[in-house]
Design brief:
heterodimer; A: 599 residues; mainly alpha; MetI-like fold; 2 domains; 74% helix; globular; B: alpha+beta; Rossmann fold; OB fold (Dihydrolipoamide Acetyltransferase, E2P); 21% helix
C-alpha cells in the first residue's frame, strides 16, 4: 500500500467547518514578520538609495547661486567644469599622491609588523600587539592636531628641539607638516592598526605546514617568506590594499586639517570647501559632481575588492588545526626588529597622546620646558565647561552616539535576519537587502553628508538642522559594517534554535526577543560599541550637517582649531579619547562577566 | 491523529526547481508512533517539517485531530506556533543562554502552575537535579532529555522527533530508544519519528513508512515490512539481502500466490511482490538470517534447496556472516556463533518459501 486510505468525505466536512476559524487565526502572526520585512526593506532602500539618487540628480543641475532643487536646467556643466577647470587638476593629482604615499608608508609597515608579531619570537609581542591597536581609539582628527603640535614648522615641538640641538638660527623648519608628505605620513601611520589587523588575520589563517614544507626542502626563512608566504597571501594583501585605497580616498580629517593652510586639497576636502567656501557662495553642483566621481571610483574599487575576496576562498588555507606555526628566531635581527616595533608604538601612540595631554594642560601653547612645566594646570578641564556650547556638544555627542548605535544595531539585526533566514524562501529579496545594505560601505562619509543636505533641505520631513539628520547619515554609513557583522554571527546560530521556539508556541517577535537577540548578544554588543565609538569621533558627516544647535565634540574641536583655540581643542580631544576608551573598557568588562557566567 | 494527503514540496535548486516531495500521503492514528524511514535526501525530514509548519507545502493537505493546519489548495496555513506540536530537533536546539528549567518552562509562557509542571516533567525524565544548570553544561543524553521535556511540557497533541538519537553514542542510543518508547506509550501521544536507522525504526515503531526519492513507498508494521516487503528498495534498505537472478518458467503455472522460479541455485518457490510483473526480468530475494545451513548429508528434496562451498566467515560477536559460493553466485547467510562453518566446506542450505520474494531485477546503470 503506497497510499494510506484517506476518507475523503470526512475531510471535506473538516474543511468546511474549520476553514473560517483557521484563516482568522493565521493572519496576525503572519503579518508581524511580513510587516517587519516590508519595513526593513523600505527603510534600508530609503536610507541608502534616496541620497544617492539625489546626489546624481544634483550633479546634473545647473546651480549657479541656487540649490539643486531650485534649478530647472539640466546640464553636464558640472562635470565639464570638474574635468576642464585648471583648479581641479591639482586636486586629482594631490588625491593620487596622497593615496599612493599613505599606502606606501602604512601597508608595508603593517605587513612587517604582522609578520614580526605572528611569525617571529621577538620579545613582548603581546604588549606590542595590543599597543598597536590603541590608535584606533584616537580619532584621526586628533592625530592630525597632535602632529601639528609636533611638526608645525614654527612651533612644532620636534622642530623646536631639532633647531635647539643643531643650534640653527632659523625660526622655522626643518620639518613641515603642512605638506603632502606630512599628510601621507600622518595618514600612513593611522592606516597601520587596521591594516595590521587584516593582514595578521590572514597570516593566522594560513596553514603553517605550507611554510614548514619549504623549510624541510632546505630553504631559509627569507626565501620561505618571499617565495611561499607572501605569494600565498597575495590575494589577501591585494584585497587589503584596495580596501585601504577606499579608506584613504574617503579620509577627510587629516587632509582637512593639514592641507587647510597650504590649500592642499584632495577630493574629499574639495567637496567640503565647495560647499563651505570662505569667499563665495556654496557650489552644490560642483560638489555633487565631485561626489558622484568619488562614488563611482569607490564603487569600482569595492567591486574589485569583492571579486578578490571571493577569489580568496580558492586560496583558502584555513585549517582547523590549532597549533601555532614555528616561530622564526631572528638572531642578530631581533634587536632592530624590536626597536622598529617600539618606534612605531612610540610614534603612533605615545607621542601624539602625550602631546595632546601636554597642550591641554597649558593655558596657551608652549613647548615643554622648565618654565612651561610650572604653568601646567588642569584648569582647562574645569574651565572648558563654562562654555555652554561645549556642554551642548558633549550632550549632543552622547545622544548622537546612543541614537545612532541603537538604530543601526536594530536595523542591522533585522537586515541580517531576513538575509540569513529568508534566503531559502525569498532569495531575491534577501540578495537585494544584502546588496543595498552593503552599498554605503563605498559611499564616502562626506558624500553621504552632502547628499543628505539635498534630500532634507527642502524635504517635507523637517529634520534639516537637527541632530536627527546627523544620526540618519551615520546610521546609513555604519549599516554596511554592522549588518555584515551581525550576518556573520547569525549564520553561526543554528536555525533549529529559533524553530524550537516557534514549536514551543512563540510568535516571531517573541522568538526574536527571547532567543535570537540573547544568542547574538556578544556580537550585538561589539557592533553597538563600534558604532557608538565611531559616531562619537566622526567628523565629516557632522561637519556637513551640523548647525550651532547641533554641534558635537568633533565639530567643536574642528572649529576651535580653526579659530586658534589650541588648548581648548586639546582638552576636548583628551576628553573624547577618554570617553571612547571608557566605552571600550566597559565593553570588555561586560564581555568578561558574560563569559564568566557561562563557564 | 495526523492525516497527510498528497503532500508536495519543491525547493529552488541550482538548476531550477527540485521536487522534494511528490504526493506523500499517510495517516497516523491517535497514540501511535509512526516512523518515516529512509536514506538522507529522501524527503522524510521535509515531510516532518511540513507537519510542524516550518516548511510551507506547495500542494496537499495536513490535518491534526481533524483540524486542517495546512492546505495549499484552500490557502490555509497555520503558523507552527499555533499548531500545539512538540518537536525534538536533531541538534536538540537547547537554548544555551537559559537554564534547563527556563528551557523547559518556555512553552508554558503565560500559563498557570509553571513551576509545578516543569518540575514534574523534569522529575519524570530524571532531570530534577540539573534544573538550574545552563544547557551547555549537560551531557549529550541529558540534552536529549531536556529537548524531550521541552517538547512534552505543554502537553501537545502531536510529538515530532527528527533523528533524535543520531547524536548519541551507540550504548546511550539503545538505552534512550527504550526510554523514548515507554515515555511515548505512557503519554499516549501521537508521534512522528524520522530516522535513517532501520534498526531504530523497527524497534520503536507501531508503523513504519519507507520513503524514497520524495515518495512514501511503503507503509506497514515493522515485522510485516521487514519480512514481506512489497518493493525492492524496502527489501534492500531494511537489513541485509540476497538478490539472485531468476526466471519464471512459462510452463509452471503459479499455484495461488506462489511462483516457481529457476535460479542458478536451483528451483525456488517464491511469492511475487507487488512490483513484479511477468514481463520484467526478475530477481529472487531472501534475507541471510533465513538461510538455514544444513549438513552436507542432509536430504535435499524438492525446491528451495541450494548447495555451495563456504568462501568466507566473518565473526561479528553475536553472530557470523557466512559467504557461500555456488558457481558464479555468492549467497550471504548468517550463522550462530556457536556453530561456525569452516571455510572450504561444502554446505547445503534451505530457504523457506515464505521468506522468498520475487522482485523485478534492478535496471542496469
Amino acid at each position: 500500500m503506497t497510499d494510506a486510505p484517506v476518507p475523503g468525505g470526512r475531510m471535506t466536512v473538516a474543511v468546511d467547518s474549520r476553514n473560517p476559524v483557521v484563516r482568522i487565526r493565521t493572519r496576525p502572526q503572519f503579518s508581524t514578520r511580513s510587516l517587519a520585512l516590508i519595513l526593513t526593506t523600505g527603510i534600508v532602500s530609503y536610507l541608502v538609495l534616496v541620497p544617492l539618487v539625489m546626489l546624481l540628480y544634483a550633479s546634473v543641475k545647473s546651480t549657479e547661486d541656487k540649490l539643486p532643487f531650485e534649478s530647472r536646467v539640466t546640464t553636464v556643466g558640472n562635470y565639464v567644469a570638474v574635468f576642464t577647470s585648471p583648479a581641479m587638476l591639482p586636486i586629482f593629482l594631490d588625491t593620487f599622491i596622497f593615496t599612493v604615499g599613505s599606502l606606501a608608508l602604512g601597508v608595508p609597515a603593517a605587513i612587517l609588523l604582522a609578520w614580526l608579531l605572528e611569525r617571529t619570537a621577538i620579545p613582548a609581542r603581546a604588549w606590542i600587539a595590543s599597543l598597536i591597536l590603541v590608535p584606533m581609539t584616537i580619532p584621526s582628527l586628533l592625530s592630525a592636531i597632535a602632529w601639528i603640535q609636533l611638526l608645525d614648522p614654527r612651533i612644532g615641538l620636534v622642530n623646536v628641539i631639532f633647531r635647539g640641538a643643531t643650534r640653527s638660527s632659523s625660526d622655522t623648519g626643518p620639518f613641515d607638516i603642512y605638506t603632502l608628505t606630512g599628510m601621507c605620513f600622518v595618514q600612513g601611520l593611522r592606516l597601520v592598526p587596521s591594516a595590521y589587523l587584516m593582514i595578521a588575520a590572514s597570516f593566522r589563517a594560513m596553514d603553517p605546514s605550507l611554510e614548514e614544507q619549504s623549510a624541510m626542502a632546505g630553504q631559509n626563512v627569507a626565501r620561505t617568506t618571499l617565495r611561499v608566504t607572501l605569494p600565498i597571501m597575495r590575494p589577501a594583501l591585494l584585497a587589503a590594499l584596495i580596501y585601504f585605497i577606499i579608506v584613504v580616498i574617503e579620509s577627510f580629517d587629516i587632509p582637512g586639517l593639514l592641507g587647510f593652510s597650504a590649500r592642499i586639497r584632495v577630493l574629499s576636502t574639495a567637496i567640503y570647501w565647495a560647499t563651505h567656501s570662505e569667499v563665495g557662495l556654496p557650489d552644490y553642483g560642483l560638489a555633487s559632481a565631485l561626489g558622484a566621481i568619488i562614488l563611482v571610483v569607490a564603487l569600482i574599487l569595492m567591486w574589485i575588492y569583492r571579486r578578490l575576496t571571493l577569489h580568496q576562498e580558492r586560496f583558502a588555507t584555513v585549517t582547523g588545526k590549532g597549533y601555532r606555526p614555528r616561530q622564526v628566531n631572528l638572531g642578530p635581527w631581533t634587536m632592530p626588529a624590536t626597536v622598529f616595533c617600539w618606534v612605531y608604538v612610540f610614534m603612533a601612540v605615545l607621542l601624539p597622546f602625550a602631546m595632546l595631554v601636554w597642550t591641554s594642560m597649558q593655558p596657551f601653547y608652549a613647548p615643554p620646558s622648565a618654565e612651561s612645566l610650572r604653568r601646567a594646570t588642569l584648569e582647562g578641564y574645569l574651565n572648558i565647561w563654562q562654555d555652554g556650547s561645549v556642554v551642548r556638544a558633549l550632550s549632543n555627542t552622547l545622544v548622537l552616539a546612543l541614537v545612532t548605535s541603537v538604530a543601526t544595531i536594530l536595523l542591522a539585526l533585522l537586515v541580517s535576519w531576513f538575509v540569513v533566514r529568508q534566503r531559502p524562501t525569498g532569495a531575491s529579496m534577501a540578495n537585494y537587502l544584502a546588496t543595498v545594505s552593503f552599498l554605503p560601505q563605498c559611499v564616502p562619509s562626506i558624500v553621504i553628508g552632502l547628499a543628505l543636505i539635498f534630500v532634507y533641505v527642502r524635504f517635507p520631513i523637517p529634520i534639516y538642522g537637527t541632530l536627527w539628520i546627523i544620526a540618519l547619515a551615520m546610521t546609513t554609513r555604519y549599516l554596511a559594517f554592522s549588518s555584515r557583522a551581525t550576518t556573520a554571527s547569525l549564520i553561526q546560530v543554528h536555525g533549529e534554535l529559533e524553530e524550537a521556539s516557534q514549536m514551543a508556541g512563540a510568535p516571531w517577535m517573541r522568538t526574536l526577543r527571547r532567543i535570537t537577540m540573547p544568542l547574538l548578544a556578544p556580537a550585538m554588543i561589539n557592533v553597538f560599541l563600534w558604532v557608538a565609538v565611531h559616531a562619537m569621533q566622526e567628523l565629516s558627516m557632522a561637519l556637513m550637517l551640523y548647525t550651532p544647535d547641533t554641534v558635537v565634540i568633533s565639530t567643536m574641536i574642528w572649529s576651535m582649531w580653526q579659530n586658534g583655540r589650541t588648548a581648548d581643542a586639546s582638552v576636548l580631544g583628551v576628553v573624547l579619547i577618554l570617553l571612547s576608551a571608557l566605552l571600550l573598557l566597559g565593553a570588555q568588562a561586560i564581555a568578561s562577566r558574560r563569559s564568566a557566567r557561562h563557564s | 491523529m495526523i492525516r497527510v494527503r498528497n503532500l508536495e514540496k519543491t525547493f529552488a535548486g541550482l538548476k531550477g526547481e527540485v521536487r522534494a516531495l511528490c504526493g506523500v500521503s499517510f495517516e497516523v492514528r491517535k497514540g501511535e508512533l509512526f516512523t518515516l524511514l529512509g536514506p538522507s535526501g529522501c524527503g522524510k525530514t521535509t515531510t516532518l517539517r511540513c507537519i510542524a509548519g516550518l516548511e510551507q507545502p506547495a500542494g496537499g493537505e495536513i490535518s491534526i485531530d481533524d483540524r486542517i493546519v495546512s492546505s495549499a489548495e484552500n490557502g490555509i496555513f497555520i503558523a507552527p506556533e499555533k499548531r500545539r506540536i512538540g518537536m525534538v530537533f536533531q541538534s536538540y536546539a537547547i537554548w544555551p543562554h537559559m537554564t534547563v528549567f527556563q528551557n523547559v518552562a518556555y512553552p508554558l509562557a503565560g500559563q498557570d502552575r509553571v513551576a509545578d509542571r516543569v518540575m514534574a516533567i523534569l522529575e519524570r525524565l530524571s532531570l530534577g537535579h540539573v534544573a538550574d544548570r545552563l544547557a551547555p553544561n549537560l551531557s549529550g543524553g541529558q540534552q536529549q532529555r531536556v529537548a524531550l521535556a521541552r517538547a512534552l511540557v505543554a502537553q501537545p497533541e502531536v510529538l515530532l522527533l527528527d533523528e533524535p538519537l543520531s547524536n548519541l553514542d551507540a550504548k546511550l542510543r539503545e538505552q534512550m530508544r527504550f526510554e523514548l518508547r515507554s515515555l511515548q506509550e505512557s503519554f499516549q501521544i501521537t508521534t512522528v519519528y524520522v530516522t535513517h536507522d532501520q534498526e531504530e525504526a523497527l524497534a520503536l515503531s507501531d508503523c513504519v513508512g519507507l520513503m524514497h526519492e520524495g515518495t512514501l513507498l511503503e507503509v506497514g508494521a515493522p515485522r510485516n515490512l521487514y519480512l514481506h516487503p512489497e518493493h525492492r528498495v524496502t527489501a534492500a534498505f531494511l537489513g541485509a539481502a540476497n538478490f539472485i537472478a531468476a526466471s519464471v518458467e512459462r510452463h509452471r503455472e503459479p499455484s495461488g500466490e506462489a511462483l516457481a522460479v529457476t535460479t542458478p541455485l536451483g528451483i525456488f518457490v517464491a511469492r511475487a511482490s507487488a512490483e513484479w510483473q511477468p514481463s520484467l526480468p526478475a530477481e529472487l530475494f531472501f534475507r541471510p538470517e533465513y538461510v538455514d545451513l544444513l549438513d552436507k548429508d542432509a536430504i535435499r528434496d524438492g525446491p528451495n534447496y541450494g548447495a555451495g562451498t563456504v568462501e568466507r566467515v566473518t565473526f561479528l560477536g553475536n553472530s557470523a556472516d557466512v559467504i557461500i559460493r555456488s558457481g558464479e553466485v555468492l549467497v550471504k547467510a548468517r550463522a550462530h556463533p556457536a556453530r561456525l562453518p569452516t571455510v572450504g566446506r561444502k554446505v547445503t542450505f534451505f530457504v523457506a518459501p515464505d521468506h522468498c520474494i520475487l522482485f523485478p531485477a534492478e535496471r542496469a546503470g
